[in-house]
């Protein structure tokens, strides 16, 4: 069993995920045909691979929640993300969904509520990655950042040990909240 991520988020996880997904979708709508092969801050991924990763994570979560695979529209990465994200939102609102457990990327099982926080943190990180790659506004929703930062600060040792997240980067003590969150997630600004 993995260590449970502390219950610190004041915003409902469904709303937190929705706000984060809305920002990702806004960036995704700005991806031009010649952007798909651009590099991202994730050195091994271009824009296409990053969007595929985010979509696949949402499809996995939706499949756990809805106990069926999500249908992926062919050839349209934005539509595929939207379908997977809508399925996650539907699944998270099912009665008792947040109390269920499922396999964690850190090993063992974890409550769906914690897995939704992990998914949302990953989505916020990759929203910034996508915005940086395509030259869009890199500002994340300030309420989302304020909600995610305390959890990421406490969970950082678990996240770092997993190898699933980039190592934290050093920042100035005067750094703002978004810069601190991104630094914990290995993103230099």
From TrEMBL:
Gene3D superfamilies, alphabetized: dinb family like domain (1.20.120.450)
Origin organism lineage: Bacteria, Bacillati, Actinomycetota, Actinomycetes, Mycobacteriales
Domain Mycothiol-dependent maleylpyruvate isomerase metal-binding: 18-78
Record GO terms (molecular function): metal ion binding
Protein name according to UniProt: TIGR03086 family metal-binding protein
InterPro entries named in the record: CHP03086 (IPR017520), DinB/YfiT-like (IPR034660), Maleyloyr_isom (IPR017517), MDMPI_metal-binding (IPR024344)
Organism: Nocardia pulmonis
Pfam families tied to this protein: MDMPI_N
């Amino acid at each position: 069993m993995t260590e449970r991520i502390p219950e610190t988020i004041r915003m409902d996880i469904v709303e937190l995920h929705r706000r984060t997904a809305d920002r990702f979708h806004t960036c995704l709508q700005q991806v031009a045909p010649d952007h798909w092969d651009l590099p991202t801050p994730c050195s091994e991924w271009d824009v296409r691979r990053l969007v595929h990763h985010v979509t696949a994570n949402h499809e996995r979560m939706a499949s756990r929640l809805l106990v069926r695979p999500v249908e992926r529209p062919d050839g349209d990465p934005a539509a595929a993300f939207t379908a997977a994200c809508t399925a996650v939102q539907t699944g998270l609102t099912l009665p008792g969904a947040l109390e269920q457990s499922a396999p964690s990327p850190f090993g063992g099982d974890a409550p769906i509520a914690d897995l939704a926080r992990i998914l949302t943190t990953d989505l916020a990180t990759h929203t910034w990655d996508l915005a940086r790659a395509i030259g869009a506004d890199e500002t994340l929703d300030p309420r989302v950042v304020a909600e995610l930062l305390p959890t990421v600060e406490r969970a950082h040792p678990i996240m770092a040990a997993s190898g699933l997240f980039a190592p934290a980067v050093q920042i100035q003590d005067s750094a703002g909240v978004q810069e601190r969150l991104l630094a914990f997630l290995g993103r230099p600004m």
